[in-house]
Amino acid sequence: MHPGRIGNHLLAALPAPDLDLLLPDLETVALDQDAVLSRTGDQIDHVFFPHSGAISLMIDMADGQTVATAVVGREGAVGILSVLGPAPSAITAVVRAAGTGSRVPASRFHAAFSRSPAIRSAVQNHVRAMLTQLQRGSACNALHPVEARMARWLLQLRDRIDHDMLPLTQQALSEILGVRRTTVTLLMRNLRMRGAIRSDQRGRIEIDKSRLEAAACECHDTMRLEVEQIYPATANHCRAAADSLRS
Q1: Helices 170-177 & 146-161, crossing angle to 10 degrees?
Q2: What is the pLDDT of residues 32-83, one digit of tens each?
Q3: Mutual orientation of helices 146-161 and 117-143 as an angle, nearest 10°?
């Protein structure tokens, strides 16, 4: 894989010597709609770096219910927290919008992590971004109406794929929100009446971004700005590391 063709922001920001630690084992893969990249309780075999598409990180409850805790796109990675030590995955990662990505064996990523300060810095910033989503999302789930939360999730997914047509079924939204499909049906009707969404019969939802933002709580904008402030730090750090290597 040529470095110039890497679409993932974490990988693209790495200085060439650090990226070279991963390139021999980095392969491009399709991220198919509804594909499960990791399951709760399984060992993490690969670290995925999306180039496009969107992946939701799901918590599976003992009674079969699910709820999404975060969403990852080309700004981040899935499975990267495995560098903290060997442990079963705490989440199930599901592709919600198809795309492409790079993946590397977890063992190879762990070895590169131990050798590269730039990779360790990228992981630290990714952890901060995930914690931001988890903390803000927990508060949002506890304090805000489910309709506003649904609007937030639709906008978060839209941010990752940069398109107003979201390939989401009512079942997928039910899993993400942790509510019944009948609740999703009611919420979609309310949002359609407000002109915030339009849906067709093929499991797709077309959104009106400005009207959906009006229906969402403040958490979407707050979370987006907080995450955007974190990831540029990765790029700046890596550019500084590259400059020091050249000097």
Answers
A1: 110
A2: 999 999 999 999 999 999 999 999 999 999 998 999 999 999 999 999 988 8
A3: 150
